């Protein structure tokens, strides 16, 4: 019986598992893709690590406010010595085991900085502001990642948009070639080798564009997954099937975006904190030669039974005794030439930040204006291209109508088809460029997503 | 060939034989009924053939579709620009063969298009004895969108189509211009020759129904 139960268990385990359907691919809108990327992208993780690093450096500096303690203790074997510094005869015994015993030593020192003449405070300010610069840089990295996500998201939609017209066009031209070949073989006179070759060339061109679109679509999807920290073979689908004309086309005035950029661009925060950090660093370096007023203490204990305890306070007895005390002191570390050089370094860094500020004053508004103008430009192009696309669609329909009823030529129909493909491409390219320009505009004003 | 299918759909709606009056109803309903008849037309599988039952059913549908169109007005209008250059027998022969040609090329492909497309039909705009109905069709997978305007004329107690416009471009008007251009260049004989050649080509390879 047991054997039968065992066999049943083995057979059941070896049967294929119930056919659960593969879980459907998660579907993301562009804003959801941005959100996912912002929560998991490695570049953002790295920038967050940098912030933590500089915050830890600040903590390291702040630790200087607290006392430091050094200590040393040991136990060592000691031979017997009887007598003191005043004894005429000092007995030394080492031959027997009983002549040996322990020697213990303990020493501790402590120091508490009381006043650094501003040096520690300046260093702390420099570290704080430096950490703030990294926090602002983190925001910039987040915005850059969001821009990258949008680029790949919309680029894939462009490829997806081109696939249906390319496939339809290819199917139409292949049908046309098949029909033309039949007429050519029949010797009807309506088709020559030139016509056949033109059709074959048309097919090769369409196949080439189709390969580019298919590969482009696949690569863009892999790149999108990478920005979202997903493996390239993980399942992912986009909520949008293709590029469409934007539902909202009214853009606020340029001034609105310029104001937003002035408030939100992380570079302004980096510059503000960078200026403070470099000024504070220069102060700290300038004060490097200043002394440190400190409160110090020392305690030492030595003991061994193997030596006579010399109790004369004027005699130094390193083997038996307790010493210690507290003192107020000044610590000096003078190197004025090195301090001057380091101060100049810090001042040079400050000048670099000022130069960046000057660059950003005109550079950022220019970046905003360029993206703004391109957003409007590509929308106008898309409007025009859409009219062209409709016109070529009409061209193709009426050309095919005429061809089918014998009142028009096949060439007109095929030219209409080719023009329609070109027009669709121009339309989708304009829509893609519009999306990319708007994404650049969002980046230029320091906004990671539309939400 | 998507454009061929659209053409087929447009042409079949223009040039079918004016047979017995179909049901009356308003033009928007008639448009809907017509597209339903088209959807019922069977298509041969790729590389395959229709079964005899499918062929018989399709022929019935073709006859049904004929009732939606005013063939005389449509072809008559298209030939208006060249009527002085064609004699009565030629005109009669042209009308008959042209209608047959449309039946041969447009009817078979319309079913496939209407089955794939998602269509919406706007309410009819009626002015006296004429009306226009706009049908918007979308095939998402093929990135295809079009807007077709059917012009209907009241004839007795029913409505029949007298023109179709694709994106506001009238097919009848275009045929009018095409015929004029051919006749001016090649004469009425040239126009007849082109029609006869095409008619013979298509008759040799397509389903020919009895009526």
Gyration radius of chain B, in Å: 17 Å
Structural class assignment of chain B: alpha+beta
What Rg of chain A, in angstroms, do the CA atoms define? 41 Å
Tell me the overall shape of chain B: globular
Task: Give the oligomeric state.
Answer: heterodimer
Number of strands of chain B: 6
The unreliable regions of chain A are 1-21
Largest sheet of chain A: 5 strands, antiparallel
Low-confidence stretches of chain B: 15-23
Q: Report the structural category of chain A.
A: alpha+beta
Structure description:
The complex is a heterodimer of chains A (451) and B (211). Chain A is an alpha+beta fold and 451 residues long. In chain A, 63% of the residues lie in helices and 14% in strands. By secondary structure, chain B is of the alpha+beta class. Chain B has helices spanning 2-15, 27-39, 52-66, 71-79, 88-116, 171-205; strands at 118-121, 125-127, 130-139, 144-155, 158-166, 169-170. In chain B, strands 1, 2, 3, 4, 5 and 6 form a 6-stranded antiparallel beta sheet that branches. In chain B, α5 crosses α6 (171-205). The model of chain B is unreliable at 15-23 (pLDDT under 50). Classes of the chains: A alpha+beta (451), B alpha+beta (211).
Write the layout of secondary structure elements.
The complex is a heterodimer of chains A (451) and B (211).
Chain A: H1 2-14, E1 27-28, H2 30-40, H3 42-62, E2 68-82, E3 91-93, E4 100-115, H4 119-186, H5 193-227, E5 237-238, H6 254-264, H7 266-286, E6 292-303, E7 321-331, H8 336-404, H9 410-444
Parallel strand pairs in A: 1-5
Antiparallel strand pairs in A: 2-3, 2-4, 4-6, 6-7
Chain B: H1 2-15, H2 27-39, H3 52-66, H4 71-79, H5 88-116, E1 118-121, E2 125-127, E3 130-139, E4 144-155, E5 158-166, E6 169-170, H6 171-205
Helix pairs in contact in B: 1-5, 2-5, 4-5, 4-6, 5-6
